[in-house]
Prior knowledge:
With 77 residues, this protein is mainly α. The chain is built from 3 helices and 2 strands.
Amino acid sequence: MFYTTEEAAVLGGFLELYLERDSVDPAVRERHLKFRQGLLGGALERADYEWAAAALGFLRPNGGRSMKIIGRWKMPC
Length: 77
């Protein structure tokens, strides 16, 4: 599976706006760099898609739902 150039640009740009900040944990920024390289090179693996889904889920507004920490990610309860 791969993304079109347009889809990759949207997904990569959205994640970059949030994850390429000084306040973001260096390990998350490093993982985002790996994802972005795979995205641009068309070489994403299952773990990359799972990471992106978790990152996007983390960035989604929670609508007042409570959150809990699971591993390194806050996840909806």
